[in-house]
Amino acid sequence: MIKDKNCGFQWNQCKLYDFNKKEECQDNYIGYMLLRTQMIFEWTGLPDTIPAKFMELMLQVNGYSCIAKHGDDLYAFYGGLGGYPDPYYQPTQCVVANPALNFSKTFEIGKDCVLMRNDVLMLGLLPLFRRYATAMVENDISFRMASINTRISALITAPDDNTKLAAETYLRRVEDGELGAIGDNPFLEGIKSQPYSNSLRTFTDLIEYQQYLKASWYNEIGLNANYNMKREKLSTTESQMNNDALLPLVDQMLRSRQEAAEQINEMFGTDIHVEFASSWEKLVQEFEESNQLDGDEVNENENGESTISESGGNDSNTIPETSDESGEVLDDSSREELREEGETETVDEGNDDDSGEAEAHEEVSDSDVSVEVDVEVNVGDESNQLDDESEVTDDEEQRSSESDSELRDDDADE
Predict the structure, then answer these.
(1) Is the dihedral of CA 72, 75, 77, 83 positive or negative?
(2) Distance between CA atoms of 109 and 195, rounded to whole angstroms?
(3) Residues forming beta bridges with residue 367, ordered by sequence position
(4) Cα–Cα nearest to 255, from 120, 123, 53
């Protein structure tokens, strides 16, 4: 044992981390992840006999917990589920044997106890954690082997056992970071070496795979970690592309706990509540704010023009803001008055009885405002338009004949 004189803390002598002990390395990965998941939920109103940290550990590891009374106190027990199944083939009894309290009992679920589930299927988090932890342990071993192989510049072959043993001793010293020494001529004469090339691409692939596993593991429990393999700048859309997949699992876990808390309050008269905490609470708030912003409709474009949608159709009219020479913006009533003044009536083309389709382009000038208005007036139906056209044609023919007769009279006089 080594003792630090400054803080008085004691620890075992440091040892090298053994990457080849897969089960121990896997347990370490799972244990550290369970420490993170301890911060997902925040409980209020729990009795002193139910510590939130141990109840959460029981739920996440075993998948469920039995909340029942022993004496006058509430406890979170772990027991075997059984009994005659209900109509949905769910257990109806929980058999509890607790050595510390020195008692064993079979509780009726829904009558004597409340079955608190980590999730609907009572899977817990261990199956999910084992999957990622196992893959990360294997990748650690591959990375370690690739790192050691960078110390070897050539592959060695030996013709006999003695030479092979000497070569293995040499490689073992290289692995330990020592300088190997060779003092036997037969060894030099018997071994054959071939150049060995080490590619940095192997390290890059292993690092990216480790990053992918870790980020995917975090995403499963609702923590946003980017696993995009692009070696360049990411856009906002790319960095947020996995946001929708973060919360479903932890949302289901929260709902299962809240339903159990309501049953406990109703059965035992407690006031227990649970909500998200830490990074998960912040993530939910960001999602709610983002959804609220997406639901708001912005009715102003980049030029500051207001868009008005009419109820009579799908088209929208864009009315620019009008201002006078002083720069003062006119209100809606002023613009409406200008629009009414700019409207024109039917254009008279020399015949009061003529009616038809006329188009006028008039400019209304004022000392303060200048507005151009295009007005299109449609008067009469198609039959009236045809009659008017025939009348206009007759008038033109009559005027043409009169002018011809006048010309003939003038020639006769001459």
Answers:
(1) positive
(2) 70
(3) none
(4) 120
| Nearest residue to 62 via CA among 47, 85, 81, 45 | 81
Residue 39, CA distances (Å) to 5, 75, 128 in order: 34, 21, 18
Buried b (16+ CB within 10 A) or exposed e, 190-223: bbeeeeeeeeeebeeebeebbebbbbebbbbbbb
Helix, strand, or coil here: 194?
strand
* Cα distance between residue 137 and residue 2, in whole Å: 30
Q: Is the dihedral of CA 394, 399, 402, 408 positive or negative?
A: negative
* C-beta of residue 167 within 8 angstroms of C-beta of residue 158: yes
Query: Buried b vs exposed e over 276-303: b needs ≥16 C-beta within 10 Å?
Result: beeebeebbeeeeeeeeeeeeeeeeeee
Q: Any idea where the domains of the chain sit in the sequence? A: 22-125+251-278, 134-236, 321-379
Give CA–CA dist 221/224, Å, rounded.
9
Contact 37, 221 (CB under 8 A): yes
Residue 182 pLDDT greater than 80, yes or no: no
Per 3-state DSSP, what percentage of the chain is helix, strand, and coil (rounded to 5)? 45, 20, 35
* Assigned superfamily of 22-125+251-278: Upper collar protein gp10 (connector protein) (2.40.500.10)
Cα 200 to the chain's mean position, in Å?
A: 33
Q: Count the residues in the chain.
A: 414
CA–CA separation, 216 vs 97, rounded Å? Answer: 38
Phi, psi of 183 (to 5 degrees): -120, 15
Residue 69 confidence (pLDDT): 94
Q: What is the rounded distance in angstroms from the CA atom of residue 190 to the CA atom of residue 169?
A: 16
* Contact criterion met (CB below 8 Å) for 154 and 193: yes
Tell me the pLDDT tens digit for each residue of 302-344: 444 444 444 344 444 444 444 454 445 455 555 566 566 555 4
